């Protein structure tokens, strides 16, 4: 069989490895945070991890808030202005993690997920991770469940599907996203990048959307990143056959192609100061959607919403 799977249950925070035996491709997933910690590719030179991850699950536990590498963003994405929002005529305040005045990156980034199911077939290796959220003390007193399905397929292709279900008795506000960092070469300055967008959200000085949109065509065609600094949300064009984003490093001989369905209409790009990796974040809404309503979902009791993104690595 082409695929196999390994689960390290000896670790207090189990690690799952989805393997394609035919080409040595491996997706490494932590039950802590349900985060993608590794996507290993065999090139002609060496085995390369294109994900900027952690040294171990314990390292992730201790350092997840230092960059939020590969964090699941839910039930809100990016920044929430002063950590406050109103829902059905009542005001709430998030009690989790703040950067300056803003609550950031949701409530699940340090959650330990249950391994619900895993296995292989002729086409793939897969795992389903699950968590039921009931923490009223964090400023989001609503119940929801979240299932994350990882599937490694042929040709170094990885699909990640998130399904969020309102399991409570009230409507809930909802956004979903991811916060992975990718590294193909030594520095992101040598990367070429293309984004399927010519528009980005205008941000204020707090990196919160103003409600306006800005024309931005720099990476509509593939261009070198060079010394460009970004911490911006791009509005993806609705071209089904065009990838949301492509990055490639010709020296390293690697290309990453990111595609997503209509559930992720925004793409946040962040270039950290160290410039060793780049965050490419699928988002279902704009940042601060609980307040500005841009892309916000209001889920009725019993409703489920799914969000899918795909990563594929190609050797150049």
Describe it for me?
This protein is mostly beta strands. It is 3% helix and 48% strand. It is built from 2 helices and 29 strands. The chain has helices at residues 57-63, 289-292; strands at residues 3-8, 15-20, 25-30, 36-42, 47-49, 71-73, 79-80, 84-87, 90-93, 98-99, 102-104, 114-120, 124-133, 144-153, 157-166, 172-174, 177-179, 181-182, 192-195, 199-203, 209-215, 223-224, 231-235, 245-249, 254-260, 266-270, 278-283, 297-299, 304-315. Strands 12-13-14-15-29-25-24-19-22 form a 9-stranded antiparallel β-sheet, with no helix packed on it. The protein has a 6-stranded antiparallel β-sheet with strand order 18-27-26-23-20-21, with no helix packed on it. A 5-stranded antiparallel β-sheet has the order 1-2-3-4-5, with no helix packed on it. A hairpin with a 4-residue loop joins strand 4 (36-42) and strand 5 (47-49).
Order of the strands making up the biggest sheet: 12-13-14-15-29-25-24-19-22
Question: How many helical stretches?
Answer: 2
In total, the number of strands is 29
What is the distance, rounded to the nearest whole angstrom, between the alpha carbons of the first and last residues? 27 Å
Q: Which short descriptors sum up this protein?
A:
6-stranded antiparallel sheet, 29 strands, single chain, mainly beta, 3% helix, 316 residues, globular, 9-stranded antiparallel sheet
């Amino acid at each position: 069989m082409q695929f196999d799977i390994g689960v390290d249950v000896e670790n207090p925070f189990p690690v799952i490895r989805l393997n394609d035996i035919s080409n040595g491709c491996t997706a490494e997933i932590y039950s802590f945070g349900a985060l993608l910690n590794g996507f290993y590719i065999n090139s002609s030179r060496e085995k390369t991890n294109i994900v900027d991850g952690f040294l171990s699950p314990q390292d992730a536990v201790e350092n997840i808030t230092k960059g939020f590498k590969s964090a699941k963003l839910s039930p809100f994405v990016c920044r929430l202005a002063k950590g406050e929002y109103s829902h059905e005529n009542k005001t709430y305040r998030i009690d989790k993690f703040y950067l300056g005045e803003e609550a950031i990156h949701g409530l699940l980034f340090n959650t330990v997920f249950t391994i619900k199911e895993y296995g292989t077939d002729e086409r793939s290796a897969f795992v389903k991770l699950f968590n039921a959220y009931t923490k009223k003390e964090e400023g989001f007193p609503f119940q929801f469940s979240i299932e994350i399905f990882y599937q490694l397929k042929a040709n170094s292709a990885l699909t990640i599907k998130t399904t969020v279900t309102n399991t409570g008795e009230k409507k809930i506000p909802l956004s979903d996203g991811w916060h992975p960092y990718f590294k193909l070469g030594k520095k992101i300055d040598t990367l070429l990048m293309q984004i399927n967008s010519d528009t980005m959200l205008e941000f204020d000085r707090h990196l919160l959307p103003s409600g306006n949109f800005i024309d931005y065509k720099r990476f509509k065609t593939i261009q070198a990143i060079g010394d460009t600094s970004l911490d911006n949300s791009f509005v993806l064009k609705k071209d089904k056959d065009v990838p949301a984003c492509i990055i490639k490093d010709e020296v390293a001989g690697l290309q990453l192609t990111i595609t997503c369905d209509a559930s992720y209409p925004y793409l946040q790009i962040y270039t950290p100061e160290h410039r060793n990796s780049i965050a490419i974040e699928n988002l279902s809404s704009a940042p601060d959607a609980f307040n500005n309503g841009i892309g916000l979902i209001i889920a009725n009791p019993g409703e489920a919403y799914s969000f899918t993104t795909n990563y594929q690595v190609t050797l150049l």
